[in-house]
Amino acid sequence: MKKHQVTIIDIANKLGISKSTVSRALTDHPNVHQQTRERILELADELDYQRNMFSVNLIRKSTQTIGIVVPEFHRSFFPQIIVEAQKKAKEQGYNLIIAQSDENYETEVANTKVMLAQQVDGMLISLTKETNNFDHLRQFERKGIPIVFFNRVCDQIAAPKVIVDDYEGAYAAVEHLISTGKKRIAHLSGPETLTVCKNRKAGYFEALRKNNIPKDEDLVLHYDLNLRKVEIYLNHFFSMESKPDALFCINDPTAIEVIKLVKAKGLRVPEDLAVIGFSNDMASTIVEPQLTTVEQPIKEIGEMAVTLLLDQIKRDIKDWKAQTVILKTKLIIRDSG
Amino acid sequence: MKKHQVTIIDIANKLGISKSTVSRALTDHPNVHQQTRERILELADELDYQRNMFSVNLIRKSTQTIGIVVPEFHRSFFPQIIVEAQKKAKEQGYNLIIAQSDENYETEVANTKVMLAQQVDGMLISLTKETNNFDHLRQFERKGIPIVFFNRVCDQIAAPKVIVDDYEGAYAAVEHLISTGKKRIAHLSGPETLTVCKNRKAGYFEALRKNNIPKDEDLVLHYDLNLRKVEIYLNHFFSMESKPDALFCINDPTAIEVIKLVKAKGLRVPEDLAVIGFSNDMASTIVEPQLTTVEQPIKEIGEMAVTLLLDQIKRDIKDWKAQTVILKTKLIIRDSG
DNA sequence: TCGTTTCTTGGGAACGCTCCCAATTTCGGG
DNA sequence: CCCGAAATTGGGAGCGTTCCCAAGAAACGA
Questions:
Q1: Do the beta carbons of residue B246 and residue B181 sit within 8 Å?
Q2: Does the CB of B56 fall within 7 Å of any strand C atom?
Q3: Mutate to test the interface with A, among B118, B286, B299 (most CBs of A within 10 A)
Q4: How far is B67 from B75, CA to CA, in rounded Å?
Q5: Which long-range contacts (CB under 8 A, 24 or more apart) does B261-268 make?
Q6: From the C1' of C16, which residue's alpha carbon is nearest?
């Protein structure tokens, strides 16, 4: 059963002084006699006093809290980013409220409402694969609560974005595939609507172009990131008269699934099909052969997102230019391609 | 820049009525004329009114929020539990605040302070491997804020616990190993202080005893869950004059690491060393051979923990008996053992 | 010694909301 | 048409803080 909360008035009464003085002592305000301060601090400690943040926030209108909304928790990617973001935020005296949307648009909307209700000072968000209506984010604009996008961004809202050079990363991956002698390189991409997917595809095409490999739209397939469907697409590739000899996948789980399926067919990776993923998830060193993949700088993404957000929160400049930070990726060559 | 927040007074003034009426309309109180209510709701919508939860909570002294503190985010285990807990909590009208402690005692203490500061109505917690001082949890007792432990529990605090039948799970795993003809079954456990580890070890011993396999303490090693150290312990096992032919590991990441190392030595799993893990992490179907492991009922754990917590929050009974819910595990036999 | 500056303290408004109580309006039955 | 009950509304206290302002105490130079 919840007990009566100890308030500064309780302390003031017990000490026979005013709540103002208690408040001052508790907030390290200079204008308190040293002796008084000590008595107050001591009693507060003894009574297990805990400042009621609601009343504080009610006055301050700032919660020293930022929110982070991520689309899913299945890959290690987002949890890892959260860990980094949390560290950085704490460093600056901010708490982090976490929510995950289960790749579901409605849940994302609900999550942003929670953030609003919790009166976060700002929000980091990475969109679900379904999100293509942004009204729930416009609320933040209207209320003047800063947002920073990361990873899954959106162009329709003017807010800073932290992304990775997907184009370059894909380019490097495909170029590597070419350098190992692969001639027919396919690409299994995610939902066409996602910017990440668009950019990786563009990098893929560019690498082919630069190396004078004719573009073949048939070699590019899009899917909804539901791993169970990978088999369908892989079978399609294998059923082509001129089969691909390499496959650049939109992310690591997809690549890993592909490797499993290829091996189940009795074929070899990378000899029969070279496979490259994207992100360097933890699982990528577990598959056999170990996955060649494009590493994303997790730590930097998390930290940068928080930094940009706090920048916005702290400064009061109105005509603020939304910047996009593009972080470098790194090709990690292992055994799958 | 943060804009002025729209308040019920703004609405009241614009409509020439009192804030009381506005408040009533906005909280679905019956005593408001239908017409008035409509005007208010309409204007509120138009002005993008958002109820200030601080003032509400300040009055209510309840936040409709529960916290969850987990030791880490590296395995898929905790993120998955969070997803389930969040669903269940939302179902009951509660928000979930998430924090992860990085397997670090100080961070855990800080996290619980955050929960206190956010005035959560209750907290779910799974302890770090380092935690053996529980003062930060006693605060919750003193303040009458309910706690529910899950997975990594603690006996020193009287609070409901949701755990899995580790003993049974381990027993089944080892028994299976024996049934496949393994004679010298080793166990690589985690920190001796963790109850989970104790129980799994007990199940391991019991399975051996029941099958008349002499107990050999040398076959049991404890480590700090830092995967880089797995190699040391595995080498130790291999250096024994009478090498083990099977290894029951404390969790899946450990088992997977073992499999990798065994294969790197040119040995075969399960022929040279059968390996079994615990938890059925996502990665367990990625390793080769696929990992035999003891599945934990993630969904049930998350849901049960929330249920027990809300039970406590809602009821006002003082002399409440702390119950421990033990969920069943399930041995999933794959190829590693 | 006194006036003036500097410390230290207390009082009270304010934050945005809910909720109790009293005032006002509406309405139906006699 | 009047009266009491029911419906609707307004006023104001209070939730636990912070912060401004003023008052009182102490200190200090002349």
A1: no
A2: yes
A3: B286
A4: 20
A5: B261/B230, B261/B231, B261/B234, B262/B234, B263/A288, B265/B238
A6: B55
Nucleotide nearest to B56 (CA to C1'): C17
Where is B299: in which H helix or E strand?
Answer: helix B298-314
Amino acid, single-letter form, for residue A89 = A
Q: Is the CB of B23 under 7 A from strand C?
A: yes
pLDDT digits (tens, 9 = 90+) for A155-178: 899 999 999 999 999 999 999 999
Give the number of residues written for chain B: 337
Q: Which residues pair with A282 in a beta bridge?
A: none
Give the pLDDT confidence of A142-155 residue by residue, as tens digits: 888 999 999 999 98
DSSP secondary structure letter of residue B6 = P
What distance in Å separates the CA atoms of residue A291 and residue A276, rounded to the nearest whole number?
7
- Whose tokens are 């920048």? That residue is A311
A20 has a chain B CB within 8 A of its CB? no
Q: In what order do the strands lie in the sheet with B220-222?
A: B220-222, B185-189, B246-249, B274-279, B292-295, B330-332
CA distance A24 to A316: 28
pLDDT tens track for B220-274: 999 999 999 999 999 999 999 999 999 999 999 999 999 999 999 999 999 999 9
Distance between A3 CA and the closest CA of chain B, angstroms: 6
User: Which nucleotide is nearest, taking the CA of residue A33 and each C1'?
Assistant: C8
Nearest to A36 by CA among A46, A53, A48, A23: A23
Question: CB-based contact (8 Å) between A321 and chain B?
Answer: no
Q: Can you give the pLDDT at residue A142?
A: 86
CA separation for the pair A150, A88 (Å, rounded) = 15
Residues of chain A contacting residue B68, judged by C-beta atoms under 8 Å apart: none
Q: What's the CA gap between A287 and B252, in Å, rounded?
A: 14
CA distances to A240, A246, A292 from A181, rounded to whole Å, are 20, 10, 16
Are A222 and A198 spatial neighbours (Cβ–Cβ below 8 Å)?
no
* pLDDT one-digit tens code per residue, A179-199: 999 999 999 999 999 999 999
pLDDT value of position B30? 87
